[in-house]
Amino acid sequence: MPSNTYQLFERAMAKRWPIACRYQGHPRAICPVILGHSGSVEKALVWQFAGSSSSGAVSGQWKCLTLSEVEKAEIVEGPWRTGERHGNAQSCVKDVDLDVNPDSPYAPRRRLPVLRIIK
Hints:
The chain is built from one helix and seven strands. The protein is mostly beta strands. The mean pLDDT is 88.
């Protein structure tokens, strides 16, 4: 059974809404991009667009989170944000359950609906 945090991340990904939380004692504003497991550990690859980390203020950086260390997570309405593609394959999430990228190279177990943007 997935944890409450895992389920919250899943809902945020489906709606393409950000999450506000604390991770390792630091406030973070994130958009989860990949969700799954590495062994039996729930993990997420996220784009952190605000807040801080152990290395200081963050305003746009890929982060690998262990979901058991995420505290006070809540979905917030707001624009979805993500960073540029990077040249290296991600190694954060070994067994990918969900990926917001509809063309995911990681063969996620489940697909999220593709959101249409109406202009």
